[in-house]
Amino acid sequence: MKLKIKDVEFGYSNMPVLQNVNIELAESEILGVVGPNGAGKSTLLRCIDRILIPQKGCIMLDGRDIREISRMELARKIGYVPQDGSQIFPATVFDTVLMGRRPHLGWRSSERDTEKVLETLKMLNIEDLAMRDINELSGGQQQKVFIARALTQEPELLLLDEPTSNLDIRHQLEVMEIVKRVVRERGISAIMAIHDLNLASRYADRIIMMNGGRVYAEGKPSSVLNAENIRHVYGVEAKLSNHDGRPYIVPLRACVSANR
Amino acid sequence: MASISGTETVSGAGTGTEKIAEIKTQYKKFIGRKILFILFSLILIFIIAGVSATLGSYPISVTEVYSIIWHGIFQNVETTQEIVVWNLRLPRIIMGILAGMGLAIAGTMMQGILRNPLASPFTLGIASGAGFGAALAILSGAGIIAGATGEYLIIGNAFLFSLIPTFVILLFTRYKRATPETMILAGIAMLYIFSAATTLLMYFSESEAVKEAYFWMVGSLGRATWDELIFSLNLGSLYIPLPGPVPIVLIGCIIPLMWKSWDLNVMAAGDEAAKSLGVNVEQTRILILIIASLMTAGIVCFTGTIGFIGLVAPHMCRMVIGSDNRFLIPASGLFGAALLLTADTIARRIIAPEILPVGAITAFMGGPLFLYLIMRRRREYW
After folding, report:
1. pLDDT tier, B2 (very low <50, low <70, confident <90, very high otherwise)
2. What pLDDT shows up at residue B277?
3. DSSP alpha helix (H) spans, B218-280
4. Which residues from A are below 8 Å from B22, CB to CB?
5. What value does the mean pLDDT take over residues A202-228?
6. What are the structural domains of chain A?
7. Binning pLDDT at 50, 70 and 90, where does residue B295 land?
8. Above 70 in pLDDT, residue B3?
9. CA distance B185 to B190
10. Phi and psi for A12 in degrees, rounded to 5?
11. Given A71, A131, A170, which is nearest B278 (Cβ)?
């Protein structure tokens, strides 16, 4: 799966959210998208999954414009884990994950679909939750269920919107390990919008730092995550150290006169 | 990271497959329970229908009723007993079953597409549209269908006016995205507009006519006849019974709704998630709205507004079998039918020989039952 985002612009009425965004994604790569609130991270993910349609520019998937791909076909290629997966009516974990088979199945679900669901549940180590109501689970467990749903889509590209927000540190690590593992094992790619710079640094192969709807910096974690960029984009003084060859960020204080 | 790989080994090869097998049996049991509930509702309908047919000023026993129904299928009805059962009680019972089914399914659909547990077939103003149409026909004799008079004028008016709110909402969604919020707000606005129009109409009318119009609006199965249920085709000596308007509307609506049940399941996860799973959310929402509205209109124009069934039957079924619409649609349809039939039986007998309008009884009976069920639930939601 090769993704190419070219000159994308998106805005709500007169408020631009994304401007002149150019990104390329290689195969089997984890791309971390960081940036302050309102930088356009979630909007970018939604544009890639055609939940929102950019006013300008185009998004190419393996050389095809996503606007020319049917929603069903797109759903077989891209899995999306939204930030808020609220479910209004009760549903079991099993049925929720089975929805991931929707792009592949007809009206009936087959034995094969059941197997796929069980396989994914087992991979994420949440098979014990299979018959529980999703609304009764903790935030971390829910997040895993939504990732499981996206994985049963068998996508070639996984989009994760703040997969670790509201999770305790154990669940944060578990979720990130899962992402890393499926990317390696299945050779798929992943783009995750993420607030935690240290998780991004540790798990992303490449990082895009966004600011005000534009790509501010792009590259390896070690090159993007530096004191200068963090001060400019977040308005935060930070101390950086090296941890296993990746930068580790300790935020110190908010800049008094941030030049943002 | 060590701890993470640690948790993975907990479900090792041996216990893992065992666990998977256990989940499979559990899941099969869960599906079995859903099918069982559907069968249970079906049996319930037959029992209540049988009992309902025996009750009335002319006493007939249960076994007699079933044998009368059985014989009536093959030969003409002649005796008083047969006429009472076939021409008076059966149309009412069958209309009750069909209306309960349609309203419950329409409620399930509205709750689903609007992602709102408070939604019912009447949330978007269908009932007040129908009420206005009927009031217009009764009070001023005016109607949309040229040449129609009397009962046909009322039915035609009720049907067409009940679809106006839906039509307005559809126009609305051409300019604003078809989100649940937009649709509910537009629907509620339509509800108030039509209620106000009806009030004004009544304000300037004779009190006798107002009473008649009011009686129409409180839903009742008393107006049911075979004409709504069966269309008889007479080809010389050959007599072919075909489904009448109500069954046709129901069949025509339930089939596409069942077909869309998967998409509706997915939409419960939210618009964004549904889109990412390949569902054309806005288009599906509008399609289901149109079908559910047609189905409701097709019932309400004959019965008036029978409330509560469409709100409560889907919830009661969800409590037992969960939210998978592939099972929930038939289950709530059959359960809604049983519920309305019970309510109508009570409405007929509670202060006999006076027959109460079933529209008032459904809420009276269903309200406390519903409250009891909510109290018994441990979950946050119910």
Report:
1. very low
2. 93
3. 226-229, 245-259, 261-267, 271-276
4. none
5. 93
6. 3-220 (3.40.50.300)
7. very high
8. no
9. 9
10. -95, 125
11. A71
Residues in chain B with CB shorter than 8 Å from the CB of A170 are: 3
Which residue type occupies A101? R
Q: What's the number of CA atoms in the CB half-sphere (13 Å) around residue B201?
A: 23
- Which one, of B216, B250, B110, B237, lies nearest residue B166 by Cα? B110
Residues in B closer than 8 angstroms to A46, CB to CB, are: 272
Q: Do B27 and A80 touch (CB under 8 A)?
A: no
CB contact under 8 A, A89 and B7: no
B322·A86 Cβ contact <8 A = no
Residue B275 amino acid letter: K
Kindly determine whether residue A122 and residue B20, on different chains, have CB atoms separated by under 8 Å: yes
Helix (H), strand (E) counts: chain B: 17, 2
Contacts within 8 Å (CB) and 24+ apart, B15-20? B16/A122, B16/A127, B19/A127, B19/A128, B20/A118, B20/A122, B20/A127
| Tokens standing for residue B68 | 């009368």
Sorted by where each starts, the structural domains of chain B and their CATH numbers stand as 29-374 (1.10.3470.10)
CA–CA min distance B121, chain A (Å):
18
Residue B279: its H or E element: none
CA A65, chain centre distance (Å): 21
Q: Cα(A84)–Cα(A90) distance, rounded to whole angstroms?
A: 16
Strand spans (E) along chain B: 230-235, 238-243
